[in-house]
Amino acid sequence: MAEYLLAYHGGSMPDTPEEGEKVMAAWGAWMEGLGDSITNPGAPVGMSKTVSAAGVTDNGGPNPLSGFTIVKAESLEAACKMAAGCPINQSGGSVEVAEIMPM
Model's pTM, two decimal places? Predict the structure, then answer.
C-alpha cells in the first residue's frame, strides 16, 4: 500500500470562535473517518517562501501551501476519494494529492 501526500491549499479562516469550533469539529470527524489510513496527521503551516535559482520570494507563490496530511491508500484514485471529504474543500480551498515515491 502506497503513501500519499494530501497538500492543502487555500481555505478561509473562521470569522468567529463558534465558527472555528465547527470547523475544527469537521476536521476531527473527517480525520477520524480516515482511521488507520492516516500515517501522519500533519498540521497547518504558516507563511512560506519559495526558493529557486532566481532567489527567494515571499508568500509561497500563486497557490501557497496551507497544511498537509499523509495517508496510505491502495491507489491514487482511493487517496483522491479520501481527499474529497476534506473540510478545506468547503471553505474555498483545495487538496493536491501526490504519491510519495519510495526511495
Answer: 0.89
Total Cβ atoms within 10 A of residue 87: 19
- Reply yes or no on domain 2-43+64-100 having CATH 3.30.70.1060: yes
Could you tell me the maximum CA-CA distance found in the chain, to the nearest angstrom?
44
Q: Report the candidate in 2, 11, 3 with the shortest Cα–Cα distance to residue 92.
A: 11
Given a cut of 90, whether residue 1 has pLDDT beyond it is yes
In this structure, how many other beta carbons lie within 10 angstroms of the beta carbon of residue 95?
A: 23
| Tens-place pLDDT, residues 11-30 | 888 899 999 999 999 999 99
Task: Give the integer Cα–Cα distance in Å for 100 and 38.
Answer: 14
Q: Are 82 and 8 in contact (CB under 8 A)?
A: no
